[in-house]
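Following up on my earlier thread - several people asked me to post the actual chain instead of describing it. Fair enough. Here it is, all 381 residues.
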Amino acid sequence: MPLLAFIAVFFAAPIGTMLWRSVANPLPAALLPRTTAALAEWDPAALPAEGTFAALVEDLKALPERQDAARLGAQLNFDLGGLNSAIRKTAREAQKLQPPYAESLPKLDAAWGRTATWAAIRVGTQALTGKNYLAALDLRTGADLRIVPAPENERIYLMLFARTAWVAGLVTALCLVLGYPLAHVLATASPRVAGVLMILLLLPFWTSLLVRTTAWIVLLQSQGVVNDLLVWLGLIDDTARVQLVYNMTGTLIAMTQILLPFMVLPLYSVMKTIPPTYLRAASSMGARPLQGFRRVYLPMTMPGVAAGGLLVFILAVGYYITPALVGGASGQLISNWIAYHMQQSLNWGLAAALGALLLFAVVLLYLVFNRIAGADRLRFG
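Reply from S.P.:
Thanks for posting it. Predicted structure:
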């Protein structure tokens, strides 16, 4: 029961809330009930009828609180820029407007004379909506209520998903290249040497992630330790220092160093169980060292390679602090934009949809991995 309660409170509930937030859109429908009903049968080929204009005015007159117009406008502005000002202006002047509203509303604000405005309101007033997932895939609902690609200058999320997958894959490969020989040294060294190396490997876990990331900024900046060393060695000129931070290079370096232990530990746990007599037996049967490694040792370490690769990739996909601090504009990943929509733009629905798509991608990756490698391949030792 304690374990079940822990999973329910700290795992299932947050994920369920995120998935619900990605499709739930209760505020506009609650504040514009007449408009929502009137637009249900609207033909987007022309402007709505007079009754729909009147329904909007009546809804705005009946807003229960003064700040509701601002909340409604901010929510609908995510669907179409400019709706915030149109909603707030119309709400202020609603009591003064006279019928026919199909004429007075466009005079008050030109947005009411465009079908795109009413299409955005129809989409934005759906209590359960898939608009956030469309936006997360660089799609949108056009003025004719058909799904169309977003404007080219607004298509960023598919690029960010691709960049995130590329960075996670590259960091995983770098961790494997660096971690495999280190894990082999740990597994074959004497107990005393292995103990010292293990302490050095685990030492970063005793330091805050924020501190480690900040340390990389100090090391990699233009006037940092790395550039100073390169200048001192004569490899670069003092006027041509290398930009190693606030770009993708800094992101890759910092993430690789931080995630390296997560690759080494699974590899070490598998390598430790491989008897050294296997390679000696291969050598006694005529196998050269490289051939013995390739045909005997490497296949036996594949469970560790698979487990470490999966662990590092999943962690890298969701990394936030490191790209945010050392990545700059070119080193930002999808997690940084999720945080942006949660903390700055306050578009929680889009943030939840981006998070849900990232979750689905990770789950799909695990299912594919489990299908190919088998669940038993994840057992260490």
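The first helix runs from residue 2 to 23. That should answer part of your original question.
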